Amino acid sequence: MRYLRRISLPLALAIMLPLSSHAQMPRGRFQEIGLPRFDINAVSLLSDEPGLTRVIAYIEIPYENLQFLRSSRGYEANYEVDLSVLAGPNESSPRVRNEIWRSTVIVSTFKQTNSRERFDISETSVQLKPGRYTMVATVTDLETRKKKKATRTLQVPSYHLGGLAMGDLLLAREIERTNTGAFEIVPNVDRIVAGSDEALFVYYEIYPNGADTLDVRARVLNSRGDAIHEIRNALAAESPVTRDYLSVPANKLKSGRHVVEIQVRGRNQSTLKSARFEVRMSGLPASVQNMEVAIRQLRYIAGHRTTDRMLNANPADRRQLFRDFWKEKDPSPNTPENELMQEYYNRVSEVNRRFGGMREGWETDRGEVYIRFGPPDDIERHPFEVDSRPYEIWYYHDRQRRFVFVDELGYGEYRLVSNLWQ
Question: Which CATH class name applies to 162-282?
Answer without folding.
Answer: mainly beta
